[in-house]
Amino acid sequence: MAAMRTTYEVAPEAYLKMVMHAKKHAHEECNGLLIGTTSEGGDGHRVCVEDAVPLFHGTVGVAPMAEVALAQVAQHARKKKGMLVVGCYHANERADDDTVGPRAKWLADGVQRNAPKACLLLLDNARFHQADTGTSVPLFHCHVKEGGKWKRGNPDGNQPVEAKLVPATSPGVLAEYLKEKRHLQIVDFDDHLDDPSKDWLNPEITA
């Protein structure tokens, strides 16, 4: 019997926010949470990543504040059409670093405890310069937990994993937003802690 495929469909709202967050803090680690829905059918599992909520940059947060943020985002997701936290994203500090480090693992593990099909989208810093060109190739690698470790998903593996942008128009929009320097307006939980008047859900950033 063939293994059940898990497909992660990343909507524009989520893709644009997480890449713009990483572009704003291009020389620092940064991360955030992904919210959406999950379903299961005859063709496998489907996870729709509908939105991204930026959390930390630089120090990437300490455990107590990250736990507070995770609880608040989970509550926000439930109120937003019954969604839930379905994953997280992380960008490493160095362009040549494509590893899942301890801070990325800690956050991803926290999400996965309540969402077994959670994903970790590790942003591909080495290709970030392509964001300005509207490249159609997603600027992230999808990792899933397998055998107790976070591993890059393989569409042809024993547990097939596929991640794609839906619809595929996000890269062109991203290039326009970067040209407008809209990424400099992104607010994360760190910024909100410094100034509570700043909305870290960024409801208008992609309007």
UniProtKB/TrEMBL annotation:
SUPFAM superfamilies: JAB1/MPN domain (SSF102712). It comes from Picocystis salinarum. GO terms for cellular component: EMC complex. Residues 8-144 form the MPN domain. Belongs to the EMC8/EMC9 family. Pfam families: UPF0172. This is MPN domain-containing protein. PROSITE patterns: MPN (PS50249). It comes from the Eukaryota.
